[in-house]
């Protein structure tokens, strides 16, 4: 345990009659039970120091340097666990950790302190495989693990300790460089060894789950190319056969250069012969869903055809002419992974691909051409730095490991993480000044970030109150809003087509009249198809985009497009008033927050009228989709708080229960300090009990897909444990003790949970994690955002599983299938809205989808974080995968 000090600073300033003051008034909150001193200029200042113990490796940290593990030796192997943690095998330690050979990294890139394995010094872990029970197989050039003799192969428990019951009869007599698991639990090992447990086994062996030899498997003897023959890679096929790659020129006397296929008994498959160029080696293999095999290595010909170092073959071993890399990489390929969209990421010793500069790493399309959307910049390391291993995360990000010490010119010692579009995960920097105010934040599907607020320049360029940032926080110059909005932008909602809705207190967008609401195209120009006439007559505070394209509006208005509408209204997708929606706000003086349920009903929170509530307080109600009040929802006298705006946040959980947050001390007469939960019918949920929860108001909250809740506000302690300004609660309201923050010097007033699980925060702070972060920061959570989009073997059931720190969805996702028949520009088939299942969403098609040779599936929904006035955000959440419909492997179905 280590200790560190966080300093907290609160300020209050009288509201001035300026456009920025209205937004700022929601960022600086009332201070109670504190010592406050007055300074010049009407500024009140409170400073307090909080000391608390924290296990740093489990901390939520400011995304200052990105994923930066500081591995101090070459990396040979990478493997991603189901929980998003990454196993790294290599030659030395990580950072200052006293570990050698293998380490486990948290999703933040920090060392996992709960994993401890010590391989004998000056040794190397070259292969890592994770079993379904969490145990870890390692192979390499070592003779001891945790001080116990283990030659070249060992198994670790999930915490890194040695499994002493594995391979008790002995092990290999030389390097194990490849390890793979069969579906039946048996273990394939390959390398330069010639015996296992004292018996002759030349370079390949199969073991039972306990590490003893499987005598039914006999692969014969590998022939020598030059030096010692070795196996580098296994590819286990669904029908029980296996493909091996490595350095060899024969198997049991039969000519096979670099690659061979075996039956499940270890017998060589004589029908699979690629006839690679002499002295070739195959280091990388991957299986496509149609049964075709991708291979990378040193070869330059295949069956007499020139094909440089990367190729695709059919399941019978013939070259697939549909994969044409041109001149290909100029040096060998050592690793490759398939991405969900069918494209590849490759790594190796090359410095160019098809004549273009690509330094040791590149993206490749499904047809072999370069993937220009994968923008890696100057690549990994310098000439001679081998990129040895690549692993794909569930969120689409890519881990790379090898000899390099820089990526795209930025220091990254031997391990780095790339985004799905190839950019280095290099951290996030705020481009704003201390005088700026940040309101709504919305992440677009390409990872860029649209930000609204009150500012005039960003990154040295004119940007009036709306800007788009790259994932690094730098200015995205391709988003050019002209003169922008002429006053505060406080709410944003991104659409699936890249356009973004913005609302606030402005009258014009790029010189064109837009009454408090507008829509910008992806390039930032005004979308003239969304034309309010004239819009609202009062400031807009919130937007909710419905799946049908209609837009719910929340604000201080009394008319919309010239028609009477008080505080809540709905527009059609062209900005015309939706006359089928009239909100019944009886019992409310004004609204403070709203949320959309999966069934289309609308939750609202606001101040009670005096006729309903005896004293100033807030209440919750539910409207039907047409705006009438839902009488099935139990309405109580609501919350009691120290002021009239005590309920500022609503969020709907997957089970329909409703979280409320703000600055209150009770709900429906029951003690609840600043957070409570209602049942789906509005009744008080006594099972959610944060206890002494928060010492001050909650300004923002975001739901994770695993049911946990992130809250931000003025508080300094949570459930009796010190938490400053940011905390995470378990699904029952108790404190998540694994979640610590590295500190901010001001209150967060808005938050947005990115699809990759990182947390964007906006507010009145200037420091985050001890670094300068004016008004916006990003935090890396200690757990991974997990998700998978799959289809069953019959092509009828589509499932989208989501967990960990992934943002919870606001509405049921819609699943679409798309394909491109010959001569067509593309066809999209909408299967419909998916239904909630434990851990995710699912939809069943009445008949198997079989379109062309492949089709793409995309699930689309929205996520919304509940925040105080002036910090509303909504973002699109999508996942895509390619489905191959040609059946070459599976006799009873297809995948």
TrEMBL record:
SUPFAM superfamilies: Calcium-dependent phosphotriesterase, NHL repeat. NCBIfam families: delta_60_rpt. This is Delta-60 repeat domain-containing protein. It comes from Pseudolysobacter antarcticus.
